[in-house]
Amino acid sequence: MYVGWSMKTNLITISPDTSIFKAREMMTTHRISHLPVTDGKAHLLGIVTDRDLKQAWASPATTLSVHELTYVLQKLTAANVMTKDVITGTPDMTIERAARIMFDNKIGALPIVKDDRLVGLITTSDLTEILLTALGMSDDSKRLSLLVKDRIGVLAEVGKHMAEAHINIRSVLFVPLRGHADYWQLILRVNQTNFQSAVQVLKEAGFKVVVDYVEDPTPYLET
């Protein structure tokens, strides 16, 4: 999955001379937290976040009167508060690489640039939606877990049993099992109507199936 397939492209942007009052109004109206700043030709100059605006409101508040504060804020524009050294991505970047960049740099949005022009934006909310979709999260599905050794062929083995039982796997996820070296959580999501059958098929195949939280997963480790 690539950023270009998932990014927002119908962007709301502002110019450097947009007042911070207008920027705040736009964020409120459109329910967004990030406003890319461009030169009108899609060249990215910076980005303004809701945090930037909150800091602008708070910074002089302790020393100025209400009248003086309003006067100062009226003079501030996007150019005064925006982040100029913007971390960006590209449409051909993988989703996981974009997530890594955003996590490491503690940013909530990644402007996407191609040929020096802003073409999209992806946010942490977008990444959460992508994750939930990839996990097959829905009201008509249910998950089960197998705590398997890190070994070749385990996924093929599970898939074979499911195929023979005519059970469709909605999604698959491997996650390291913390505290247990060389063990992974193999998380499957299947249709609710097939859930009990899937559990039974896997148990008959010799797997220890986890369907609810257990404080100590040791008894469920594959031997």
Automatic annotation (TrEMBL):
Residues 143-219 form the ACT domain. InterPro entries: ACT-like_dom_sf, ACT_dom, CBS_dom, CBS_dom_sf, Diverse_CBS-Domain. Keywords: CBS domain. Gene3D superfamilies: CBS-domain, VC0802-like. Residues 7-63, 82-141 form the CBS domain. This is Signal transduction protein. It comes from Desulforhabdus amnigena. The lineage of its organism: Bacteria, Pseudomonadati, Thermodesulfobacteriota, Syntrophobacteria, Syntrophobacterales.
